[in-house]
Amino acid sequence: MGLNKEQIAQRIAKELEDGFYVNLGIGIPTLVANYIPEGVNVVLQSENGLLGMGPFPFEGDEDADMINAGKQTITKLPGSAIFDSAMSFGMIRAGKIHLTVLGAMEVADNGDIANWKIPGKMVKGMGGAMDLVAAAKNIIVAMQHTNPKGESKLLPKCTLPLTGVHCVKKIVTDLGVFDITEDGFVCIEYAPGVSIDEIKAKTAGRLTIAADVKEITF
After folding, report:
1. Within 10 A of 134 (CB to CB), how many other CB atoms are there?
2. pLDDT in tens, 60-108
3. What is the 3-state secondary structure (H, E, C) of 125-166?
């Protein structure tokens, strides 16, 4: 079984804390905006120049001029602010972002991340990923555990060009939740219907199963 994309986002939303400034990357991370826990007030930042991003609009309510960094239509909340990308990146580089949630193609067991380029394939650009991984106080990765070939994306060492080094703190995949420590990946939660043996078989990097590992609940 494992988690679908919405459930991955829902689990990551549980990591949000009141008062956080949060940047959500393209793909699964953008879905986190739909699952902010009740009573938790966070400010979502988009690097194209918005503080106070809301959830995705309902069909028919879209404003083509109101988009996130991934060019998806979004909403803005009361009190939001719109500004240029230079100011936005100034916020990021000054360390004002408490948490960033990113997708990734590979993560190494020492916290390295590769999420912007596959050699030989067309790429639109780095975007804000390199600034975010260098400056955000905490980085969580949302991704599938394996690639389309069934190969592990949690590796001893990234094979693709790096976006950042020693920066990822936690990963949420379709199979479970993993902290990154000096000893590599530590599985702290597993997805419903997923066995520990399956997680071990599909994780190429160093892996430890936490003594108090538990099933993910929502």
Report:
1. 15
2. 999 998 988 878 899 999 999 999 989 999 999 999 999 999 999 999 9
3. CCCCHHHHHHHCCCEEEECCCECCCCCECEECCCCCCCCECC
Please say whether the beta carbons of 49 and 88 come within 8 A. Answer: yes
Q: What is the dihedral of CA 139, 119, 185, 47, to 10 degrees?
A: 10
**125 Cβ partners below 8 Å, 6+ apart?**
none
The catalytic residue among 15, 47, 106, 189 is 47
CA triple 34-38-39, angle to 5 deg: 130
Whether 59 is catalytic is: no
- For the entire predicted model, the pTM comes to 0.92
Residues comprising the chain, all counted: 218
Q: Give the span between the Cα atoms of 143 and 198, in whole angstroms.
A: 17
Q: How does DSSP assign 162-199, residue by residue?
A: PSBSS---EEE-SSEEEEEETTEEEEEEE-TT--HHHH
- Residue 4 CB: number of other CB atoms within 10 A? 12
For residue range 148-206, what is the model confidence (pLDDT) as tens digits?
Answer: 999 999 999 999 999 999 999 999 999 999 999 999 999 999 999 999 999 999 999 99
